[in-house]
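During the reporting period the student researcher (J.K.) took over the structure-prediction task from the postdoctoral fellow and processed the backlog of single-chain submissions. One of the processed entries is reproduced below for the supervisory committee.
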Amino acid sequence: MHIIIIISGKGESEIDHYSRKNPNWTADRSNGDIACDSYHQYKLDNQLVKFSISWPRILPTGDPTNVNQRGIDHYNHLIDDLLVNGLIPVVTIYHWDMPQKLMELGGWTNKIIADYYEAFARLLFSVYGNRVRWWVTLNEPQLVSVFGYGQGLSIRPVHPPGYNHTGVGDYLAIHNFLLSHARVYHMYHKDFKHQKAYLSRVYILKAGSILHPILSPNGDYPPVMRERVDKNSKKEGRIKSRLPHFSQDEIEFLKGTLLPHSN
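J.K. obtained the following structure tokens:
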């Protein structure tokens, strides 16, 4: 869950709006304003790998021309921290938090939502695709379709947006979920699948400086690290590099010295 809209430029999402409007939706009348506070606690949360990117934190109103840079920066920090800790990010693009402005257009019942969703996904691939190789397009679309657009008010509010249009709203929603998924899938394979992957400088200089000498076949520091530090040291007028050199014996001595890990 993500913290309230007033933090760092985040826009209101469907679940923000719905949980405030329907306080009895949860047993303890809590909402998503604070929840588990992953916005501030992401370093602790990074013991986990799978997370979603909040659509309204990146695009507060859903308008792809109105990008919240603070939202972009937050997920850059999160992803880099995952990599530094040796974890592989698996990112869900949509996990039940469409910008409220798009919900007011009909949400997933409006076919135009595929345009907005594809634009959002394209932005994520462009910004984070150099570090994220695993993407999940949609989280449980059938649940949202049935309980959000079909039976939302049958007994009590079940899921945002809480519509009660069984046999119409649920079918429209699942139909547009499927089309949106397909558009993003084909867009990714056409424009991003062959994007050259590289590890961020943060990962190389922090995690790589430790892991590369131990795990890589050739040992020693990462080549890009060696080249960069040697070059900068020379520019600074130093006699030798700020990054010490291993002897060949030391390289061989270090290689493969990873202790078994158990929890």
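The committee noted the following: Confidence is low (pLDDT under 50) at residues 1-5, 259-263.
J.K. will present the remaining backlog at the next meeting.
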